[in-house]
Amino acid sequence: MSETTSGLLLAGVGGQGVLLASMIVADALVRAGHDVKQSEVHGMAQRGGSVFGHIRWGSRVDSPLVPLGSAEVLAAFEWAEAIRWVPYVRDGGAVVADIRMIVPPGACSDRRSWSMPYPGIDAEVFASRGLKTRLVDASAIATELGNVRAANNVVLGSLAAFLDIDVVHWEAAIEQFVPRGTEEVNLAAFRAGREASEAQIPLPTVEPEGFSGPHEIDIRHDWCKGCDICSRICPEYCLAVNGDGVLTVTNAEACTGCRLCVLLCPDFAITIHPPQEPATVPVHAVQGGASR
Amino acid sequence: MSIDTERRIEAATSLLLSGNEAVARGAVEAGVLVAVGYPGTPSTEILESIANRQDMYVRWSPNEKVAFDVALGASLGGVRALVTMKHVGLNVAADTFMTAAYTGVGAGLVILVADDPGMHSSQNEQDTRAYARMGFVPLLEPSDSSEAKEFTMLAFDISEEFDIPVLVRTTTRVSHNRGVVKIGARLERPVKGFVSDPAKYVMIPGYARGRRPVLLERIEALTAYVEASSLTVESGSGGDIGVVTASVAHQYVREVLPDARILKLGMTYPLPIERIRAFADSVDRLFVVEELDPHMENDIRLGGIAVEGRAFFPQIGELNPDIVRKGFAEAGILPFAPPESDPAPPTVVRPAIMCPGCSHASPFLALKRLGAVVTGDIGCYTLAALPPLSAMDTCLAMGSSIGMAIGMAASGGADGPVVAAIGDSTFVHGGIPGLSDAVYSQANITVLILDNGTVAMTGGQEHPGTGVTLQGSDTTPLDVVALCKALGVRDVRVVDPYDMAAMYSALESSIAYVGPSVVITNRPCVVSPIKIRDKPYQVIDEACTACQACMTLGCPSIIWSEETFEGRRKVVIDPVTCTGCTVCAQLCPPLAIVPVPDWEGSTDV
Ligand SMILES: Cc1ncc(C[n+]2csc(CCOP(=O)(O)OP(=O)(O)O)c2C)c(N)n1
């Protein structure tokens, strides 16, 4: 009967082992005597993308997918992913989140403001929705135990605190699925996760001020011989030598002022001017940076 | 993992299996001897989960057409055969598929096609049920792992009883869901042997004309079969509406309307139209809930039965319990729309990206610098279409890159050199005929073959170029260089993509060559079959001028630091994920990127 069906979500980044963790949880639930369905997505998403697993259990499970707002718990192996999937958690449910931050390269692309759109660590985002929260520093705990790859089982240990499954089932499932030879450290990680204290939240970092506009590229055409060195080095593809051998600015908006062109020009033909106005809207230190 | 799965299966009477593992188990229990396919999400793990069985012939074929041919040949030889592919694979195999419906089978032949509603990992969202109709081939749709096993076994029986190949269609949510499956024994079946019968197996027009009426008779017999079959299950007793549904949509309907009257179909082509008519007569309103195209709905309406479906349930993307609930609310069946859950707070966007150290990055950096118009293909390298590389202009179907480059060059409309970019497996799958045309037509194009020695995108499978089979035996590897030369390409270069300067000049020279040229990169995938880890690199903070040259690679190991130089962010390298490929260090103008001193080996256990 679907009235008695419960659900949970696991979330993380491709490559973190979310699928293996899902199998452990599902197996523990089966051992505890439930009907279980588990859903995951493979393929493209595994290449560093956002990865999730749905698990549902009860006396009889129909849909393998957890409806929005109905999960008992969300367990996330990465901070930004915990935030992404929180709408799945039911009122009064719980979030277990590793405070590990994996900043994707795409978050390092605004070369005007130089700010990173990565959410700062703050338990309030969940508490304000009325959810129980448990933030763990799983990597630190696993590293201390001797294998950072056991971090996922630290998170599962913390998750176990919110689920009514006997420890023997958890431990049997972990032994079943972790790579041979790593059973001990993974079981230790699981146990450490059950007892883990609330993680120390890193301080938000200070963000750069940013610029109001692009730098201006100034070419002295009477000195330039069109040798092409500058256009080949420009990281922003701002310059090109045209069919007539004349250096032109093809992407003025993108100049960040790195001055590689200036430094490499054998003829001193390029000058870069910073944007006239300082940034009008300073970028604040609201977001946690990518401290590693 | 496959060995473990197999061990777990043999030890258990029932256990959690993915839909894919369950299909494979169904094939094992049905006594299948030959199982072949071509990798493609979400179908890939079917063959992988039985790769270690010594009592079966399990192989990756170069493409789906070849796989289908192998399976059909085995079936004519008198053994049960399974062929697996993703939905678009059936386009490649369609030529064999359409005529195999005419010839029929020897022993049972099942085609497992995995659709991908929502396009989690696919280039389109086509619905395989259209092929069933076009080919007059019966199609079964399991709704969970347990049915995935049962239906696969039943499909072999139907195939033999009606002398026709049978389609089993899964979707991502069936293939990649785990559910409890009961395990049974393997049926040992003797090889029936091939019986020559030219009128049945040689489809020259004279014989094919004889088979066409047989095909139509068989579909009529199958319609009679499905009308009486226990594949159609009626459940529920509440209310005066009825719902016809199949596949995973059935699970969502049960979830949302636990007591409603449901007619659940296991075979969705041909439809048990009289069963549906009787069901419709017993309810006030009849609904159809199906993912993707309205196949059942249209057929039911054609049968003169009033039905509602597409008006409330979308044709685009996957269904889920929330969407099904909303549809029934709009139809006035449920009293309320689902509560809108508060949206997630802002978080970072996280698309799929190339791995740290991926050998596909540097060739595209060079192509962007060279201003090339790049007709691309399908594989991990397709990620080069996204920023910061942004160096691929097209990607359609496997192997299309080369033909499209020939046409692009012939059009004269490209404002730069024309380069086709194709992976090694994709080249073997569908690129070779294109390269043959490039030579035949003396097209002025460069073909970049990104040979990473595996089918990386689908998780690292073997292919003819790798010299290893799916079952782990060594075999003769395809020699790509010799092949290109044999096809008549004069300008063939092999280059190390970790040598940025060599990579750039190889492409520059090949582009300058008039006529077809080939550049082959030769670094293996960093993830599969072996996880490659070399000494990681680090950034000397004082030397970094924040120029962002390294960031143009899009390597996930390099991110911004908190330090700035002249207001710009400097960068840091994550030593845990850095593979030591050295490309960023080669790009760094102030030489700020250097090996981590005293590195004591990998932390990645
Ligand atoms: C017709 C078809 N079959 C299978 C697939 C699934 N698929 C996507 S990419 C790919 C092959 C990628 O291998 P390769 O060309 O070697 O590139 P790599 O991913 O290793 O870089 C496959 C099989 C597909 N998209 N279309």
Notes on the protein architecture:
The complex is a heterodimer of chains A (292) and B (605). By secondary structure, chain A is of the alpha/beta class. In chain A, 26% of the residues lie in helices and 20% in strands. Chain A has 2 domains: 5-203 and 282-287, Pyruvate-ferredoxin Oxidoreductase, domain 3; 216-273, Alpha-Beta Plaits (2-Layer Sandwich). Chain A has helices spanning 18-31, 79-85, 124-127, 138-145, 151-160, 167-177, 183-195, 229-233, 260-264; strands at residues 6-13, 35-40, 50-58, 71-76, 89-98, 132-136, 216-219, 239-241, 247-249, 270-273. Chain A has a 6-stranded mixed beta sheet with strand order 2-3-1-4-5-6, with helices on both faces. In chain A, strands 7-10 form a two-stranded antiparallel sheet. In chain A, strands 8-9 form a two-stranded antiparallel sheet. The radius of gyration of chain A is 25 Å and the shape is elongated. With 605 residues, chain B is of the alpha/beta class. Chain B has 4 domains: 3-228, Thiamin diphosphate (ThDP)-binding fold, Pyr/PP domains (Rossmann fold, 3-Layer(aba) Sandwich), CATH 3.40.50; 232-330, Rossmann fold (3-Layer(aba) Sandwich), CATH 3.40.50; 361-521, Thiamin diphosphate (ThDP)-binding fold, Pyr/PP domains (Rossmann fold), CATH 3.40.50; 537-595, Alpha-Beta Plaits. Helices cover 35% and strands 18% of the residues of chain B. In chain B, the strands form 6 sheets. In chain B, strands 3-2-4-5-7-6-12 form a 7-stranded mixed beta sheet, sandwiched between helices. In chain B, strands 14-15-16-18-17 form a 5-stranded parallel beta sheet, with helices on both faces. In chain B, α3 (45-48) links the parallel β2 (34-37) and β3 (57-60). Chain B is globular, with a radius of gyration of 27 Å. The model of chain B has no long low-confidence stretch (mean pLDDT 95). Classes of the chains: A alpha/beta (292), B alpha/beta (605). The interface between A and B is large, with 84 and 81 residues. The complex binds thiamine diphosphate.
